[in-house]
Amino acid sequence: MSTPRPGTPGATRTCPHCKTTILESANVCPGCKHHLRFDPDAEASGRQRSVPLRVEGTIAPESDTALEYQVVLTIVDDNGREIERQVVGVGALYAGDRRTFTLAVEALEIKGVRAPRKRH
Q1: What is the pLDDT of residues 16-66, one digit of tens each?
Q2: What superkingdom heads the lineage (predicted)?
């Protein structure tokens, strides 16, 4: 995996508040939701955002059982190579407990940029 140069789509930086790796173009950290910079065009850029993938599900143990869980996030490229794998959270549920998990991929269209050529 290569890291794009600063100023190009996909370039990253570290959030000064929560130290999560985020997109360089982010005005608000998606992790801690702190504002990172003032954007006078925030309303206009908000219209360009989309959520092309959103999955939500709820789990609950059957009565009189405990249920341990691990939330594992894996990103795979179009060649089947694993780009990233992280354990996002772990825990346990007991009778009467429920947890709802939501995965959302947020995207922002970048206009006027051509895709880099792939090397063979």
Answers
A1: 999 888 888 888 888 898 888 776 665 555 447 789 999 999 999 988 899
A2: Bacteria
The 10 Å Cβ neighbour count of residue 17 is 13
Q: Identify the band that residue 8 occupies on the pLDDT scale cut at 50, 70 and 90.
A: confident
**What are the DSSP calls for 4-37, one per residue?**
PPTTSTT-EEE-TTT--EEETT-SB-TTT--B-S
- CA-to-CA distance for 58 and 3, rounded, in angstroms? 35
- What value, to the nearest 5°, has the Cα angle with vertex 104 and ends 101 and 106? 160
Contacts of 14 (CB under 8 A, 6+ apart): 20, 21, 22
CA-based R_g, the chain, Å = 18
